[in-house]
Amino acid sequence: MKYSNSFLRTTKETPKEAELISHQYLLRGGFIAPTAAGIYTLMPFGYRVADKITKIIEEELRAIGVEDIRIPVVQTARPWKESGRYYEDIDELWKIKNRSDEDFVLAMTGEEMVADAAKRVISSYKDLPKLVGQINLKVRDEARARGGLLRLREFMMQDAYSLTKDEAQLDEIYQKFIDAYKKIFERVGVQTVVIESDTGSMGGSGAHEFMMIAENGEDKIVSDGTRAVNAEKIGISKEDELDGAEAQTKVKESFGDAQVEFMRGIEVGNIFKLGTKYSKPQKLMYLDENNQQQPVIMGSYGIGVDRLIGSIVEASHDDKGMIWPKNVSPYLVHLIGIGDGMQSANGLYEQLKDSGVEVFYDDRDVSPGEKFADADLLGFPYRITVSPKTLAENSVEIKVRNADEMKLVSLDEIVETVKSWM
RNA sequence: CGGGGAGUAGCGCAGUUGGCUAGCGCACCGCGUUUGGGACGCGGGGGUCGCAGGUUCGAGUCCUGUCUCCCCGACCA
Known about the structure:
Helices cover 30% and strands 29% of the residues. It is an alpha+beta fold.
């Protein structure tokens, strides 16, 4: 893509609404366009990152046997009334009506819909286990959206569901998801820890969260080095309570005399052992080996895709801009032409494109400084500069975004060199 | 939902005790000069000052109401 053709405008100044560095850079780099609190239009670069994350997630989940489905974003309230959650006064649940005054809810999660659909499929223990999932919009009427992409009212989320006959089968699948999630976060370049968490309004017998440790994360984590829990789970919620006697007692109950430390984190994934919380009231049953009706045991597994984008930037940036991990960067190469180097840059752009390289080409007639500043802000892994200076050596200059050195590579070898990065 | 802050051009901001044609920087358009770290000159375009009502000869400025956005907290599948 050429800069001059792209739906892109970067800004030098930081929009005043942005406090967090990820929010600032994503706005300045034109990755997102705000529309309302917590609701953004994903611009081309933002879309490309989301797309890459999506593909990585799909690959890893298909590898453990998850089958793709699509759950409605506009959901009839009937199953929600069956499960009881419709009446539970969940503030985040966005309730709407159609023109005939019938009740619907927007997709806060998909448990009810999956349980409902599963009734068409499951009748015997021989039908279990089953794994289904999707990557689709979620809508939650959050009391307070914040931090750019870190807490949204509408967002893309991967949510998968397991249907099993008993706890043993659930445990086995639960562990598969933990392993798959670890691979996903590793591939997108985010370091996470798995912690024990509260089940919240999801209900069920257990839950874990994947936390990216970050100073400005919303969640508080208590860890003794071998085991970590969400502070919420052991009844600690306020920051200033952490050193208090009450908090110390709660820590002791959970950790004994072990030395603990407090950390903050961003929750990028969350998994639940739902048990029969949905299957019982919604009557999702199967017939066991002894011809007895049993409720299906469910689990659910989610990753916030948009939040992950924000988290990656929080974790990977410098004072000039973002630093995208190769696997999720909008483009691999940021090509810059300077002065009389433009002609050759045009040619190189076509060559790279023809070779299947994801290359973004700054073909604008603006000063070199502006192009370099944009390249730093946008943060693609490799910058290639073609200028009279490099052409005098019959070469181009390569700079890796997260390293200081630059080096010259001859024009004859540059395409092959770039291909070796793919 | 409680507390705090803010709405003036796409973005960042100024606008005195109410006063004349509402300004500045960036961005944008035209011409020219520039070309390795956000260049320069000259000339331009763009505003119902969040919205509604009120006070006044006169409101961006004062009063009332209302909407929206941001930050802290509560909450958080």
